[in-house]
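Subject: design request, 207 residues
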């Protein structure tokens, strides 16, 4: 079963399905060749396209970089303005920084963090780890601010403890991220959206 990710008001282009772009040619389907409609994005006050680009394929699929860049640029030209990545997608943030930072003003940038990290020794979901991940993401993405940083599928207890969300709040106050969010499902997702400082929810859908 294909699992895609959806935001409130926007759905990421399927990471592992060919419904939106042709894997062989890396070109947008005819349905995306026109300007995309936009909807309010959570509590951010921004409007984003109803389809966004989920950058996990650049981590997990053997995609030729320039072909992928050409496809993403066509999507941006067509009105797509949401790109979603994560610190746990190998090479994905670096790919976006290297190839798309020149169009940084054209898209709302979402990344996700918090889980165990091979590069750092700090415990998963700790404030120290999240702070280091955010600083690294800023460097790799070649941006001075990430539009939304989400906790990447931590459990309900981690959310309730508050340390991880507190780390995002601190990064927001420092101007490193604009908005705080959560990526996950079920009771943890329901709890996250009940919190006043969570602006964005990303959850799974199975079409």
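Subject: RE: design request

Done. Sequence follows.
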């Amino acid at each position: 079963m294909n699992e895609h990710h959806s935001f409130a008001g926007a759905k990421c282009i399927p990471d592992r399905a060919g419904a939106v772009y042709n894997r062989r040619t890396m070109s947008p389907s005819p349905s995306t060749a026109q300007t995309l409609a936009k909807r309010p994005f959570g509590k951010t006050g921004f409007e984003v396209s109803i389809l966004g680009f989920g950058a996990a394929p650049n981590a997990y699929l053997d995609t030729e970089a320039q072909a992928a860049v050409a496809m993403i640029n066509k999507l941006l030209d067509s009105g797509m303005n949401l790109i979603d990545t994560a610190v746990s997608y190998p090479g994905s943030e670096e790919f976006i920084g290297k190839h798309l930072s020149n169009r940084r003003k054209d898209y709302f940038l979402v990344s996700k963090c918090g889980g165990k990290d091979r590069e750092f020794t700090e415990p998963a979901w700790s404030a120290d780890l999240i702070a280091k991940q955010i600083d690294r993401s800023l460097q790799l993405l070649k941006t001075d601010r990430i539009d939304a940083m989400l906790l990447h599928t931590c459990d309900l207890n981690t959310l309730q403890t508050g340390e991880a969300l507190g780390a995002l709040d601190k990064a927001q106050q420092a101007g490193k991220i604009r908005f705080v969010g959560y990526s996950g499902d079920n009771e943890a997702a329901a709890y996250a959206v009940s919190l006043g400082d969570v602006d964005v929810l990303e959850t799974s859908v199975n079409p």
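The longest strand covers residues 146-152.
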